[in-house]
Amino acid sequence: MSLYRANPGDGIAWVTGASSGIGRQLALDLAAEGYTVAATARSADKLHDMALAASGYAGKIIPLPGDVTDADVMEAIVERIEAETGPIVLAVFNAGGYLPGKGSGLQVDSFKNTYDINVMGVVNGLVPVVEMMKIRKRGQIAFVSSVSGYGGLPLASAYGASKAAVINMAEALKFDFDNMNIRIQCINPGFIDTPLTAGNKFTMPALMPVDRAVKRITKGLRMGGFELTFPRRFTWWLKLINLLPYPAYFWIVRRVTGSGKS
After folding, report:
1. 17 with 23: CB under 8 angstroms?
2. Residue 80: alpha-carbon gap to chain centroid
3. Which of 3, 23, 44, 113 is a plausible cystine mate for 183, CB 3.0–4.6 Å?
4. What are phi and psi of 150, to 5 degrees?
5. Could you give the residue numbers annotated as active site?
6. Which stretches of the chain drop beneath a pLDDT of 50?
7. What is the reported pTM?
8. 8 Å CB contact between 22 and 144
9. CATH class for the domain made up of 12-257
10. If 0-12 CB within 10 Å is exposed, 13-18 middle and 19+ buried, where does residue 69 land?
């Protein structure tokens, strides 16, 4: 028997980090498919504007502002969705942040803030959602991670480690979730043209527009397996070099990124 896969007629889609970038476009695209989308981010104004932008769609967007780093707030949002709107059948934990971390200027707060958003921001929503899905014996969950989690990259000591944790978490949970008929997926994009990447001062290979990236995500949610990664001409290359011995890996990354140059 195949694992459950959500559709708009079954209940609510919940998207975190929904006020910009991938989260915003995903919420809009899911609403266009007919979902009622509960959209969470810190900016109430941006969520309100997005809900207006979805007017006339087959589905709709319900703004539910909140900070993913606050476990009590996230639990309250899940309870409110379930009580007032309907069962959450699809949860996409997308909220994330990036702070560059150069080895010569490490800061504790950079690591803590990154982990609070990228790791605990997933956990804080995941725990109450799974409690509801477990009762219903079905559900679909997706983590938005990154190819930065495949292996260490320059300036990504905090970000990459947090995304590696999310990938590992998804892999570990799949065993138990399969037994509960909860489908779990891990979304590992390359460079996507979003506000998160806009400040990058280095070359971003195979940079993908956000609308194309989200089309890959929505298709993967409907049809894909455990991992959704794109663009493959870039992400599979990263997968490959992480299979190499460390001396070869470090040599290639240094050559490609120019790291280590003064």
Report:
1. yes
2. 22
3. 3
4. -70, -35
5. 159
6. 262
7. 0.93
8. yes
9. alpha beta
10. middle
